[in-house]
Amino acid sequence: MAPGINIIAILLVGAVIGSFISALVERLPDCKGLVAGRSRCPDCGETLKVRDLIPLVSYLLLGGACRACGKAIAWVYPVAELGALFLALTVIVVFRDPATAPGTLWLAAGLGWCLLALILADVRRFLLPDMLVLPLMAAGIASVFLEPQAQWQSIGMARIFGAALGFVLMEAVRRLYFWIRGRDGLGFGDVKLMAAGGAWLGWPLLPHSLALAGILGLVTVFILRLTGRVLGPSDALPFGAFLAPAIWILWILGKTAPDFIGILVGF
Predict the structure, then answer these.
(1) Among residues 188, 187, 212, 210, which one has the least CA distance to residue 198?
(2) How many CA atoms lie within 13 A of 96 on its CB side?
(3) How far is CA 150 from CA 123, 162, 200, 255, in A?
(4) 174: nearest Cα among 182, 165, 185
(5) d(CA 188, CA 190)
(6) Any bridge partners for residue 47, and if so which?
């Protein structure tokens, strides 16, 4: 596929997949009728017409409300559509070198879209579904075959070990927190997401993914305080919503990731 056509295709898919992501998140945990079912207003049950399903455009034309009942459309729909398009544009900018293989563009975009779905699911439902996390882990290990053949063994082992180490370390943290505080601080979905991160990044970048996720969490808490919301000791934050973007950022940065994290944390 020619570079220009490839870029247009990614943008078009990005615009459409945002709607799919928002529908998936809204229909969790079982996603019943996601593929076969018609899109309906969750408040009045009205079947949505094609003109109501154009990504972003329909939301703006409808003024953010259902055409039939006037109830506000959930924020997850425009956010997912904007986010998916933003990720597509970011991939195009980051990998703008004409020599970049089309497979790398699609891999970066696909990883970003999957992680976007996980971010929204965790924020909206405090849920990181296996139907997304487990295939993501498998895809991270399988993506080794897009690397130079001479590096398959070394990179593959780093990713397999990264998945195993990510699972073990995060599960240890989860159990330690429960032992100290007597309540859950991390969900098992966070453990599996960390394993998926290790499968994409390899074990050397696991500490950096935790560091960046922590920084994103602290920034979020600071912003919430500025808006007047102070979190108490019992308030929960969706850790997966910070870990997921950390994984994507570090994967995009590649070998420069450790330097980037070093600058952020000052070491």
Answers:
(1) 210
(2) 4
(3) 41, 20, 18, 18
(4) 185
(5) 5
(6) 40
